[in-house]
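Assemble and predict.
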Amino acid sequence: MSLVHINIFLAFTVSLVGLLMYRSHLMSSLLCLEGMMLSLFVMATMTVLNTHFTLASMMPIILLVFAACEAALGLSLLVMVSNTYGVDHVQNLNLLQC
Amino acid sequence: MFSSLMLVSLLVLTLPIMSSIFNTYKNSTFPHHVKNTISYAFITSLIPTMMFIHSGQETIISNWHWMIMQTLKLSLSFKLDYFSMMFVPVALFVTWSIMEFSLWYMHSDPYITRFFKYLLTFLITMMILVTANNLFQLFIGWEGVGIMSFLLIGWWYGRTDANTAALQAILYNRIGDIGFIMAMAWFLFNTNTWDFQQIFMLDPNLTNLPLLGLLLAATGKSAQFGLHPWLPSAMEGPTPVSALLHSSTMVVAGVFLLIRFHPLMENNKTIQSLTLCLGAITTLFTAICALTQNDIKKIIAFSTSSQLGLMIVTIGINQPYLAFLHICTHAFFKAMLFMCSGSIIHSLYDEQDIRKMGGLFNAMPFTTTSLIIGSLALTGIPFLTGFYSKDLIIETANTSYTNAWALLMTLIATSLTAVYSTRIIFFALLGQPRFLPLTSINENNPFLINSIKRLLIGSIFAGSFISNNIYPTTVPEMTMPTYMKLTALAVTILGFTLALELSLMTHNLKLEHSTSVFKFSNLLGYYPTIMHRLPPLANLSMSQKSASLLLDSIWLENILPKSISQFQMKTSILISTQKGQIKLYFLSFLITLTLSMLLFNLHE
């Protein structure tokens, strides 16, 4: 694997870890999600351009569109939580506790 | 000669209105000018009428061609036939007397010139109505009398009751106008015209719909049952207004419309039965309501309504000429009754409640005389005016193949006429005085005396005069059993004696508790109470519920969004066992991922 690929792969991994391990703000999780999407986009574009596989150059763009949709969803959930509690600390999401 | 004189007579009426542009409007002799104008118009119209009686020749004057809308030609045309030629002099005579009376009655009113202008405008629109040859011109007159009625009922506009009464008149008339416009539209579609001649010549087959429309229009304008409450409420206007509009001229416009369409109505048995039953219900219901009223003008208003029902009954037994005769004779004594009541009211310093009158028999002899003669003419005492029309109607109804129940109700209403007439006479004239001691009883004014005297002579002689001088129309029933001939007289005398006995017997008794029958009669059969509150409330609440509750709240908000969210929340709380520890879940995911990658990558 070339150095560039390892670089991007490392960026993806760091974002993944950041998505799954965070302290209290839900916002940091969403930001890491965006980072994951960005690294995936760069990886896909690079591969397509290097192998001159022009037919597949749709894929990064469609990936970007769906990433935007999911970002909107995530933000709306964040806004809902923030409306109820004022801050987005993740320890507030305890409605399902019995 | 004939046509030009009639046109002159009609034109003369419009002169004072035109002169109101100039300064004669401002000085105080304008009312006298109006009264004189109407008397000149009356005398001028007598000449064509007498020519018509002599020769029997009907005329149609088509003056001014207004416009053509594709295939419909609208022009100004006057139909001078039996009905309009006889009605115009009668209406002008009665209006002349009423104008003279209102010179005395409205003497102290600061806007008396405007009052006379309104009355004159009303008279002009009424003349337009009766001389119209096409439905469009008739509709112009129809709406005109409606508007003038509104303006005149609300004459004392500072009074809330007067304003609501005027509004009530307009609303009820409007409901009737729906029927009129429906008839106009039907005639336009099916006979391509609004002219009477063409409609009667074409004689369309299925005339149910337009005649129903015209019946609805007559119900609205002539206060038949269902659209009747505006007439007693219209007594909020001054007495000359009640005398002119709501007894002689405007309310007969509905009956006049049905009379105009008699060639169509005589072929349609269904509509005739409907008319008969409607008239019978009206005459009985309003006569019952008149029995327990305490306002003298309201009793006379209900009496008018009852007589209008009788006219509609006459149309229902296919006798339009008799109905028209009753219109003409009724105008005389009803206007006189209103004027006498106006004289009483003014003399007792604006007291209208008959429980506070009494003993006027000796104090106001002239008014007493005319009131008694008017009541006798109303009930159809032989050989006074009312006899010639009313008795003929009852006889014809008795001997014709008609609905027995409608006939029975008409007979009961005839006897009730005598009852409430006796009630008026008993309470207003007989007994000891019940008004305040400081009185202003004065009937010495020449305006008052002359006007009532003219109508008095008319009430006594007009019936025989008109009946002997018109040309024969429909032949009245000549032979019938004696008991049938005397039916009307018998029920009238029965009514008189019953009412007198009851009044004398119960005169000094205390009224304990009102029985339910009394309450039914006094509150006008609960009809205004129910109809003015329930349908508007139902309509408004239904529209509010359907607009805001049904559409917005239920369909847009509740059906999909809120129901889905509620359902999801309830079921998720019901089903899930989680505790919401998100960080732990994320951490376990990460560890699983790392572990699996280590396991599956390191064995290569």
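The longest strand of chain B covers residues 59-69.
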